Known about the structure:
Layout: H1 7-10, H2 27-31, E1 44-45, E2 51-58, E3 61-68, E4 74-78, E5 97-99, E6 105-114, E7 120-128, E8 133-136, E9 145-149, E10 155-160, E11 163-168, E12 173-176, E13 185-187, H3 192-198, E14 204-206, E15 212-219, E16 225-230, E17 237-242, E18 252-259, E19 265-267, E20 276-283, E21 289-296, E22 301-308, E23 314-321, E24 334-336, E25 341-346, E26 353-358, E27 363-366, E28 374-381, E29 386-391, E30 401-405, E31 412-413, E32 420-425, E33 431-438, E34 441-449, E35 454-459, H4 462-470, E36 477-482, E37 488-494, E38 505-510, H5 526-537, E39 541-545, H6 555-558, H7 567-581, E40 586-596, H8 598-609, E41 616-620, H9 631-638, H10 645-650, E42 663-669, H11 678-689, E43 695-699, H12 709-726
Parallel strand pairs: 38-39, 38-40, 40-41, 41-42, 42-43
Antiparallel strand pairs: 1-2, 2-3, 3-4, 5-6, 6-7, 7-8, 9-10, 10-11, 11-12, 13-15, 14-15, 15-18, 16-17, 18-19, 20-21, 21-22, 22-23, 24-25, 25-26, 26-27, 28-29, 29-30, 30-31, 32-33, 33-34, 34-35, 36-37, 37-39
Helix pairs in contact: 7-8
Amino acid sequence: MIRRSLVVLSALVIASTSMAQEPELSIQGIYGSNEFGSQLVAVNWMDDGRSFTVVEREDGLADLFRVDAVSGERELLVSGADLVPSGSDTPIRLGSYRFSADGSKLLIMTDAQRIWRRSSAGTFYVWDFDTKTLTPVSLQPGLQQYAKLSPDNRRVAFVRDNNIYLSDLAAGDEIALTTDGGGDIINGTTDWVYEEELSLVDGFRWSPDGARIAFWRFDQSAIPSFYLSDQMSLYPDQVPVRYPKAGTENSKVRLGVVEIESGSTTWIDTGSDQEYYLARMDFADSPHEIWLQRLNRHQNRMDLMLADVRSGAARTIMTDTDEAWLDIDFNDLIWIDDGRKFSYTSERDGYAHIYLFNRDGTLDRQLTRGEWEVLGVYGVDEERGYVYFTASTEGPLYRPLYRVGLDGDGLERLSGATGSHRVSFDPTFTYYVDTYSEAGIPPTQTLRTADGDPVRTLADNSELMSGVEALNLARPEFITVPAADGTDLNAWIIKPPSFDPSQTYPLLMYVYGGPGSQTVNDSWGGSRYLWHQLLASKGYIVASVDNRGTGARGAKFKKVTYLNLGKYEVADQIAAATHFASLPYVDAERIGIWGWSYGGYMASFSILKGHGVFKAAIAGAPVTDWRLYDTIYTERYMRTPQENPDGYAESAPQAFADLLEGNLLIVHGTGDDNVHPQNTYQLVEELIQANKQFQLRLYPNQPHGFRGTVRRVNLYTMMTNFLLENL
């Protein structure tokens, strides 16, 4: 998914060091050191709601502690030095972990190896707290994925080589629950496009009674391989990616339920039309029924279905539709009342709101309403009768925490009105951890009661806070600028430290601009924000504008771009630049724009269509023709190239290469499995054919978000120099 791709531009280094006596921003300090690292607590709540666990790492080992939420008292649960497998003298390194249902065991993943953006594989072990022994989940060769303990804690299911296996911890043996997995067939995990665009990688679920496992099965034989070329060896390696491009065939997807005792599989009847996506699935608060979301290929109709796992029969209980597209990123279907009701977020009244449905799909009531958006649902406290969520009631810039009664009454704000809150409730909804930040102010963490009252500070981020304060930076100012049609657009602007309104300054605009995204909000911006401040210290004004099509302002504002990606967004960025050019302190001859991913698309398209408004642009990993991008993301907003040829033609920057005026820098990783470097190569060829001059920087084998501090320093040094020389 393009809007979540900019890893290189948002990552913060975790550790922190003391600031210099006379602090000064530098690229090395921002991207190549620990100077501006954030110190926050990675909280994993325990089932009792009174404590959470944290991992502390030192000398290559990791110790696991239980922390009393209120008092802060710590208890060592597992010493990293004790995690030694039988027959070895070396402890494993504790990575991700999960407790068994009864708390007697700990499932540990170690030596994780990244596959794509969200997927990974590694080696799993089970730590027994009573016997203090470490047992491998499997003795067979090959890395494992998505291992999960059974509800009775006796077995572990996992995926290896696209098949699902079951390991009996007591007997020490394993069996294959599926056997047809391989290059074309995937069981228990997902294909590339489901992972990227539906955020789905873990492709199987235990039933509540542990008697069966429901799973996704993908047949991707119809999808050709797109080959990325690794040029770093004597003879290049070709890295295949099964990548369905807009208008081409997807995987054929089925849902199966395998019985543990018999090994027999029942296939769910999801309909004869294979042109759909099975976007979500889980057991429906029952061992005998699963719920699933069937999304049509246009992604403007979602059928919520219940299926009997014994017969495979399925029925539609609720349907959600939209004239443009449905946004299922909410992913917040929550069963309550012993499975008799469920909550669900929908944009059916033009804004994202929470609805309560009965199990048969009939509407019970709408829980929230108004010309504002629910931005994230954090859970349902059935005992007290509340739903907790963040919302844009105070405007799209802010993320306050709210709750509302399950009867739809008593809407209550639990936090301040401004800033951004990201919360994590304990399983009993007694406490939550509130991670709070503002624009220009790093995040802090506070333990609060469910009513919002502070209990204690978990992390004040003091070193980062004092380091940023010592820089005496001018915080971003929130303003509005006019869109091409006159609509007020939200924006922020950062001015140089010694700003003089009687002087003129060059201006750089940062853009993302994709459907439902936001760059303009009241939250800490991390390393990207600090780089913008570095540019400000060099005499640049930096600004960002949320064009039409972005989020938190309702469906009408967001979905105006349907079938015409780039049309309204680019017009708004050009209009915003024209507005800035009219300000007395902006040098109208020195306006630039930059962005990555969808922002790279926007930056390249804006300078091409801007007729000289922009003197310079940096386009990082840009889409240059939507026919080159994947099915799920592209068709959600554009339908297929066969259905919408004019829309695709008008939305391709490479088709307008002959219009280039100004200085264009294109940056791409040659290992980008998301936005293929093919996009850049084709734009480059069109620019050459139009006899246009430009700059190009390739990073060998780098994915969509570049990895490694050296590369980040190199990238931002290069981009800074480009701006100093060309803007």
